[in-house]
Records
---
Amino acid sequence: MLAVQNVSKRYGDVVALDGATFEVERARILGFLGPNGAGKTTAMRCIFGLTEPDSGSIEWDARPVRSRDRVRFGYMPEERGLYPKMRVREQLTYFARLSGANGCDAESAADLWLGRFGLAGRSRAKVEELSHGNQQRLQLAVTLVHDPVLLVLDEPFAGLDPLGIDALSLVLREVADRGVAVVFSSHQLDLVEDLCQDVAVIDRGKIVLAGDLGELRSRARSRRLDIMVDGTPWAPTETRAVSAAADGGRCVVDRDVDLTRLLAEAQNAGRVDRFSFGLPSLSDLFREAVTR
Amino acid sequence: MSPLRQTWEITRREFLQRAKSRGFQVMLLVTAGLILALGPVLSAISTDAEPIRAGLTAAVPDGSDEAIQQQSAAVDVSIETVAYPTLDAATEGLRSGAVDAVYTGSTIVWLDQESAVLQSVIAGAAVSVRFGEVAQQLGISETELAAAFKMAELEPRVLSPPDPEAEPRRIGALIAVTLLYMSILIFGQFVALGVMEEKQNRVVEVVLSRVEPAQLLIGKVVGIGALGLVQVVALGGSAWFALSLADVADISVSRLGGEIFFSVILWFLLGYTMYAVIYAALGATVSRQEDLQSTLILPVIVMVPGFLLGQFAQEQPDSIVVVVASLVPLWSPMVMPTRVALGSVPLWQLILAVVLVVVFSYLVIRAAARVYRGALLRLGAKVRLRDAWHMTT
């Protein structure tokens, strides 16, 4: 398990991380969310020693993370990067060797992942000759080629088409099922909701929400209310927020709201076509957590 | 996974990627070929392949031809003789360029310019022929006559004889300083370019998630340095071989070449390491090709005086300026091997220069590694050296 504990980092007057604390467990996927500039990338860089925290600790299996642990981690930075003049298989083999695989193992691991991502036919091509999509696939293969125990991906879904998103989701699920701890950042909350068991929301360097997604939703103070009166969305006065949905409006209300009274009020307003009350979505939780 | 093995993987990649490049291979082969071609050219110049030809008329005393051959052999000059029946025919040959001079027994006829060598050979031959005639008239052998004249022979004594090695040493020094300057510059720039490209391609963050900046720095400098060593050995070796073939003087050029060759290798390793880490630090401050050009001028400005002093050392190897310059670490790699090639370095100065370079390089590596680490993950705009120095990652 990766434990980021009370990590702070400041660049001059800018506070990038302010006592950030969250955990990534084995065999689970954590969605790391936050507005732009909230500190997601800095936190990920701290895990890999690319950025030195001012204070706090980062531990793997209850021991401070050291260089030899990091070799077993996989990191895909937001700014993707490969050696453009190197051939595809050569590049993959190189990164496998850099992470400790010996010659033969590195080559078979490279072939495995090339096949997995449909790049086997391009193994002798130079990276710069690949299409953008194939470069993305190779980047992911580079992250996975050494069988990491922890996978950290910064915006892995950015720039992928729907098929690419499906393929990557499948890979992440499989990797997590094999026992790997996975954490990725994303702004696509629906995707995170589908894929992740855990989430951590960071805002202005602080973790404002973290834990099991199901528990967070049921523990939330808010609920989702969806009322249609005479074919149009209807919102009660207690509404804290409204999120537009394809089939009408959805409001966020307090979980202790008096439903009987609300139903009566709606019926007074007209014919009630729909009345649903449920747990908040991840995007509701997110908005609530980062509201300023 | 040991850090050493990771560093080795980086070294291996840096070396192989560049060694496999067609551009590098072509450049190396062409340059080595040009240097090897230098051998026969030098050889042709130094041995002066064109023999001197002398026309002899029928009037020359008997034995003149043999005497001319003996005399020319004694002074190591090749002279061909051509016999003409009359002076007119010989003069015609002189005019047409078939011979360089005509000897009639009493005169030497030139076309426009006298040749001191030919003049002395023919004069010597004439004396020799006359010597034979006199001996015959006196009824004694030539040897007895020669013994009678023995007293008159003067034994030469030269106070400061010209060094037969001077010329090959100068050629060696010129090749050494040029090769070192070019190699340190080219492979240093390879390092800066490699560092910049890793930032430009953003691959540096992927690499640094697996290895420490120091490992990446060492791997890169060693890998590219190994490639530089291949070039220096290939080109230096070619020059050594070419000079051996040329046989420009009656000395063992092979031994002298070996001396210069190994000094070049030593100073390449020392000089390259010192400059390569400077180049790496400078390369780390930029993420774009266009920013790199202006940054790379700095080491060139430092190196050029060293190169010029290395040239100057060929004229004045013992001048105080040259001696001091050869002990200044940033210039030693170009000036000291020149002095070594010219054969004028006391051992203590050589050792002192090596020690100074090693100590200075240690300080440079410490500082450059700090700048490199500080600047490496700052992508985009050029990073000022001062900021990189104070940058905490």
Note: The radius of gyration of chain A is 22 Å.
---
Amino acid sequence: MFEILDMGASALTAQRVRMDTIAGNIANINTLRDANGKPNPYRRRFVVFAPGQAGDTSKPGVHVKSIELDQSPLPKRYDPGNPDADKDGYVSYPNVDMAIEFVNALEASRAYEANVTMMDTAKSMFNSSLRLLA
Amino acid sequence: MYLDRLMNQGSVPVLEQFAQFTDARQNVLGEDIANVSTPNYVQKDLSLEKFQELMRAKIDKTDSAGPGSLDFNDISMDIQNPSNDILFHDGNNRSMEQLMSDQAKNALMHNLAVELLRTQYAELETAIKEGK
């Protein structure tokens, strides 16, 4: 009877990881170098969900299967004075699109809310069943 | 034996079965909501109509058998895929509005069944206490 709460919790975790990934993308929207300071524009990350709970996929729920790198081409801007410019004077920027990130963030937020509502409803059902005993 | 007859006649077994059904359905709907962003996930549901149909057939059959012989535990439900219309590029046929209203309705039905059961048990208690 309580597995529905585990299921909801797995979805909350998954949506939170999705939101973290989106936050990372937005934070790095202008990052042109990697952690070591070498020229390597940031690539957009996205989560891939799969059914089943994280620890045991045979249990109903959802988990983050992987966090992938978006392999779409990096947009280039003409900026010959930039130290990261190529020989033609173009600088590659991260392939993060603010509009896409916001749409995904909104979807993650709504999905999170839906799961909280579902868990709340399940709790009200447990409570009403428990009242049978009293 | 006598207590068994008391507990297994009237609406008690029907309500028990209904509460069990709504509980199981809430689990299925919960899984659908959890997987609302999962690629290629097809939404599932337990059909309320099918359950009521099975229940009706069972009640009709047991009516002639007399009181004390109702047993609904053999009603089993198959998980169904309510719609095959894939609208999203990720292959998921989610409908958040449908899911949320279904789970709200399901919870209300569960609470209704449990509340009616409570009334039945309270009446039984009154009878045991000889109306005191």
Note: Chain B has one domain: 2-128.
